[in-house]
Amino acid sequence: MATPNKLRIIPLGGLGEVGKNMTAIEYGRNVLIIDAGVMFPEHDMLGVDLVIPDYTTYLKDKKDWVRGIVVTHGHEDHIGGLPYLLAEIQAPIYATRLTAGLIELKLSKHQMASQASLNIVAAGDRKSLGGLFDVEFFHVCHSIPDAVGLAIRTPSGLIVHTGDFKFDYTPAWGEPPDFGALARLGHEGVLVLMSDSTNADNPGFTPSEKTVDEGLNKVFREAKGRVILATFGSLISRVQQIIHAAARHNRVVAIDGRSLEESVQRAQDLGYLDVPPGVLVELPALKGRPDHQIAIIATGSQGEPSAALGRMAVGRHKQITIKPGDTVVMSSRVIPGNEQVVGRAINNLFKRGARVIYDRGSNVHVSGHASQEELKLLLNLVKPKYFIPVHGELRHLHSHAELARQQGIPAENIFVLENGAVMEFDEKGARFIERIPGGYVFVDGSGVGDIGPQVLRDREILSQDGFVLAVVRLNGKSGEVVGRPQIITRGFVYVKENMDLIERAEEQVINALRRNGTDPQTAIRKSLSDLLYSETQRQPMIMPVVIDN
Amino acid sequence: MATPNKLRIIPLGGLGEVGKNMTAIEYGRNVLIIDAGVMFPEHDMLGVDLVIPDYTTYLKDKKDWVRGIVVTHGHEDHIGGLPYLLAEIQAPIYATRLTAGLIELKLSKHQMASQASLNIVAAGDRKSLGGLFDVEFFHVCHSIPDAVGLAIRTPSGLIVHTGDFKFDYTPAWGEPPDFGALARLGHEGVLVLMSDSTNADNPGFTPSEKTVDEGLNKVFREAKGRVILATFGSLISRVQQIIHAAARHNRVVAIDGRSLEESVQRAQDLGYLDVPPGVLVELPALKGRPDHQIAIIATGSQGEPSAALGRMAVGRHKQITIKPGDTVVMSSRVIPGNEQVVGRAINNLFKRGARVIYDRGSNVHVSGHASQEELKLLLNLVKPKYFIPVHGELRHLHSHAELARQQGIPAENIFVLENGAVMEFDEKGARFIERIPGGYVFVDGSGVGDIGPQVLRDREILSQDGFVLAVVRLNGKSGEVVGRPQIITRGFVYVKENMDLIERAEEQVINALRRNGTDPQTAIRKSLSDLLYSETQRQPMIMPVVIDN
């Protein structure tokens, strides 16, 4: 339903995090979309590969109203959903040069690069989208170059959306934040501020990227052998720092891992990586070179067993064998939930003789998101009438809301929302209208949204106790069991050592069918689950297969 | 095999953590066991309830040699394996009074309390075990009262084992650590020190339990409504602090959660909890009492959905409905791997209007394990000849080993071991002998060790993509398919929306059997997995059920 002459803001995507992957701005029959990212599934989303925002439900009757998709920066959780979104709607994309390059890379993997309308903008530009939204892009600092915030002028007033940001006075690449632009916007009068809450429960300032330079220098200075650094492919700023530090210490750098290679190549092609001549080499070119002249940037910072570092940790990497003298540096944060696998990889690297640098004290990683003092500074510069904390879980949004109250924004002008919450703004004020489905959709293999709660529940049961199949043949006329039932299990018990239990299960099925021939499925299910629970305290999925003979 | 006149030390149990749950000390035909704990499974140990040390393999031909089981303190990861161990061997247990009380509670749940020989000791006691091992118990501080370290005199020399400890000058219960005893042992001459490495990568000192008093006081002072505190049942010292803080602020305390109630009751019965009269009440007695006079200690600090706090978070708790004004305090550490579920519970509590206090800055939890400066002090007091860091993952042991080197212990006298590593000590020195199976055993339901890698691998496949069952009847003589194959799936796709795929799968099976009638199982498996992968990019477990008609 269109809303004439009223501004609406709807955070749409993020797994627990509000408005992280997607936000919609509406005015009448005009929709502006900010970002289209993916999230990685949580532990209990069994077998799910990716999670994307449920834009389908939202856009159902609004597909023709989308005036543009504005992307704040080139990280997966902001661009990864574009191939799925563009499969459903046609709308021009607006992004800065590096962001556009990474989007193009992503779309080309889905064979979609040619059909997208990708418009390159620069910080400072203003673009009119559909004649209604006027979007100004302003420079912010984050852990990837070319990140922008958005100043969106609408008929109802000015929205400022920070994107992901921190106030870094000495960034690894490019200029410090554009405080001037923020102050100017504040002076112009901001109706709504939407600001990054990722670190809103973190006191103080987030350290500058420059502090990582010092950490890396120390590592390179002390390392006697090879230095292997694990980081995200998308942390282009970190890759830059590593290349500089390695070059300073007369080491060449090889990139190990396809996703890293691709984004490094793209960033370099577009001029966003400063690589001294001869420093970047191919992995095979390391052969014969002395260890103290070698640095390797590898994928696998989250402990993924199939990534480069994961294979090194268990001795399954074809080119690189970890040995005493190697230094391994974990130069990225551990995504919550990955602590166990990352810890295991670190232990395995130690076991193979490497020195592993992974803790906070070593300054080999800093966050790309603003902490409390920076968030307060932003609120003071922008001076919004209304405040919507975004990009964070509810607990972070509540912390951020508390900061805003401390800065003098009236509590009734602060809105802690959930995904799908529709906020409306007009001359009378601001109000929560309704909550539309603003959840997420699972991508599993090539299927988008074809698995739901029932399939996940089945996977959960199967993952806990496996299944037991009872194949029974019944005489079509007499209803009597023909032959012996066949009991087949997977993921339940080790069968060879439990033949006795399996035999008793067969007996149980025969007896149950003798007592209750009218509903053999239920009889088998009930009798087997009773027996197996009492014998093993387990509850496998029981599948009766009844065949009429 | 017995080893006459030689001392052997074998760390035996712990999931990634070395010697955490169990350690064996051997001399000839004499075995002393230190602790018998359980661990909680990691994420990829699907359906596993508990993990216990693989003592069975170690004790196979040594069951009659065990002179005693010495338990350092009453936490699950040190006592939880006793019921399983005592099912295999008969040996007297030695523990302090509170530890013994908690062991008794544990054994009685397994109907084993009467058959165990439980001997109560006190810090300062010396006991001769089997005439060979002379064990002195010395007082240490940890997050549970009555924790001890061990000084074990053997014919080859003195072993000092710290158990879990920190150097707390102002503990929540009892005396500061017995520095005098440690110095005396150091003076006597220590052959081997085995010391807690849990926090060996943490610089500085671990804060005293007293700092939590301040944090809790602040919470109680500021809270307008009810205060609900989540902690472990076994953190008896924390329960004590909460009761004191609540009483100071004129609140009664109710315990919510069976495991908590039981251990609190036991600690109180034994005189290890100081409860002012009238402060502890039953949950139903809270009815009608004003909110600002109420405190509740609840289970569920790890986000467990079925524990008290988990049920409150999703609105499924029968007696307690979270409402604005409530303050929830997470007063325990988050076990690595539980961050996601704990975060989700916190978000849900915020959503229901509670203020949730969960971060480091609020001083509502401190670790019970020594940090680097404490570990250095211990090394200086005990001055061991040989050093074996224990109770930690490999990365912590390596940090601890580095500290020991800095304190002047020669690198060749420091042994970073893995579970099952056999170290031998005699007049000639110390040496690594061999590695025996020192892994772990899974407990699933009532089954101990009856699931192994194959069952877990099947559960993994099932958890990712479910299964597809193809039931086919073949004519016994002609080998032709009778009727139509039946395709049944669970955890694979949402069937109602994929009828077309299921029908194609049926066709595929018929065609495959026409082409290859000699090995119908393989034909079905191969053809179905090809079709399903190309259509969905998923790899469910495929189960052909072929019935001869």
Key features of this structure:
Metallo-beta-lactamase, Chain A, Ubiquitin-like (UB roll), homodimer, alpha/beta, 30% helix, 549 residues
Protein architecture, described:
The structure is a homodimer of 549-residue chains. By secondary structure, the first copy, chain A, is α/β, with parallel strands linked by helices. The termini of chain A are far apart. The mean pLDDT of chain A is 93. Chain A has 3 domains: 7-204 and 367-444, 4-Layer Sandwich (Metallo-beta-lactamase, Chain A), CATH 3.60.15; 210-361, Rossmann fold (3-Layer(aba) Sandwich), CATH 3.40.50; 453-548, Ubiquitin-like (UB roll). Chain A contains 15 helices and 26 strands. The interface between A and B is large, with 68 and 67 residues.
From the alpha-carbon coordinates, what is the Rg of chain A to the nearest angstrom? 28 Å
Q: How far apart are the first and last residues' alpha carbons of chain A, in Å? A: 57 Å
Largest sheet strand order of chain A = 7-6-5-3-2-1-20-21
Largest contact between chains: A-B, 68 and 67 residues
Beta percentage of chain A is 25-35%
Q: In a nutshell, what does this entry contain?
A:
2 copies of one chain form a homodimer. Chain A has 549 residues and is an alpha/beta fold. Helices cover 30% and strands 26% of the residues of chain A.
SSE arrangement:
The structure is a homodimer of 549-residue chains.
Chain A (H helix, E strand, L loop, with lengths): L2 E11 L8 E7 L1 E5 L15 E4 L1 H5 L6 E5 L5 H4 L2 H5 L6 E3 L1 H13 L8 E3 L5 E4 L3 E7 L8 E7 L2 E5 L17 H10 L3 E5 L13 H13 L4 E4 L5 H13 L3 E5 L1 H12 L10 E2 L12 E5 L9 H6 L13 E4 L8 H13 L3 E3 L14 H11 L3 E5 L3 H13 L14 E6 L2 E7 L4 E5 L2 E2 L4 H13 L1 E8 L6 E10 L8 H17 L4 H17 L4 E8 L1
Parallel strand pairs in A: 3-5, 5-6, 6-7, 11-12, 12-19, 13-16, 13-17, 14-15, 14-16, 17-18, 24-26
Antiparallel strand pairs in A: 1-2, 1-20, 2-3, 4-22, 8-9, 9-10, 10-11, 20-21, 22-23, 24-25
Helix pairs in contact in A: 4-8, 5-11, 6-7, 14-15
